[in-house]
Amino acid sequence: MRPDTPADHTTEAERLLRTAAQYPEDHEPLLLQAAAHLELAGERVRATALYDTLLDHPGTEHPYLVKALNAANLWEYGHEAEARAIIDGIRTAAPREAAPWEIAAETLEAHDELEAAHDFFSAALTLLIAPGEEVPYATQSLLTGRHRVRRLMGAGHDAWDELADALHTAAVPLDELHDPKRLWALGSSDPAELRAEITRLRAELGTYRSALSRPFPVAVLHWPEPELRELLASYPGLATEYPSHADHLARIEAALRDLHATGTPNLGIVTGTVPSYEAFAASEAASPADPDLLPQYATTLAARGRALPWPPPRSAPCWCGADRTYRECHGAG
């Protein structure tokens, strides 16, 4: 049952915490979900403790995302100065992922810091969008957020606003979705105005739901070299799937390029580890040596939010983990 009351959210948070203890390889997304439920339950101090636990863990994959969520939570229960310090730290660190920037900017926006939110969105886009390159899906929401803030500020369209409009696919245009006058319509007693506003809100909610639940139709499994070496040592029968690590990496890039050429959208890469794979096999009552289990494992990792969008920006680090940009590595040619 969907949580509706503070008590329901607390119960769901406790369930997620138990699950995280049972599946430590998935502790990060599970603890983040638990913290979100604690916030909805009004237990913001406990939520902060979970964020701190994640930040103290050396294996946390997305520390800046955790910091941004923590800043948003802290500000909501009176720790504005600490939240601002964390947000300033995120900007100084300049992470190469969109989510921390978006959450920090929206935190500023939620507290009527429109100029600061606008600057934050702009700094993120300057860092994450390279001229002439395709805008990654995760970065598109930064364009949308910046468009919304500029609309609230009464600023005219610029090149990034035009790009946001071009990427927007919902039936209701961004200018209408982000019109400040919509707030007035919510308080109207005119049935026609209220019906029109309900239609707009449904369109916007549909867009947000699509963005939150958008699956990776194809998530290709990537094994870092040490993990692949361990995998083949434990399950030598999988050597037919992976003749060499270089061949494995080349096949990933070639497969994704072929899919991209046929118009398959929203491609992703998931990175496997042997302990995680073995735990998945046990949960499926299957043998890790079964090659048919590999695509199921990749799909499960993607469903847990582990997929990274492909292709990365050409100036970003290559997806393979090499100390080179994508343009210099697997994106060459």
Structural notes for this entry:
This protein has 333 residues and is mainly alpha-helical. The chain folds into 3 domains: 167 residues, Tetratricopeptide repeat domain (Serine Threonine Protein Phosphatase 5, Tetratricopeptide repeat, Alpha Horseshoe), CATH 1.25.40.10; 42 residues; 92 residues, no CATH class. 62% of the residues lie in helices and 4% in strands. It contains 16 helices and 3 strands. A 3-stranded mixed sheet has the order 1-2-3. Helix 6 runs antiparallel to helix 7. It is globular. The N and C termini lie far apart (50 Å).
Sum this structure up briefly.
With 333 residues, the protein is mainly α.
Please tag this protein with its features.
Serine Threonine Protein Phosphatase 5, Tetratricopeptide repeat, mainly alpha, globular, 3-stranded mixed sheet
Sequence-ordered SSE layout with sheet pairings:
Layout: H1 6-22, H2 27-40, H3 44-56, H4 63-76, H5 80-93, H6 98-110, H7 114-128, H8 137-153, H9 159-167, H10 174-177, H11 182-186, H12 191-213, E1 219-222, H13 225-234, H14 245-261, E2 267-271, H15 274-283, H16 293-303, E3 308-310
Parallel strand pairs: 1-2
Antiparallel strand pairs: 2-3
Helix pairs in contact: 1-2, 2-3, 3-4, 4-5, 4-6, 6-7, 6-8, 7-8, 8-9
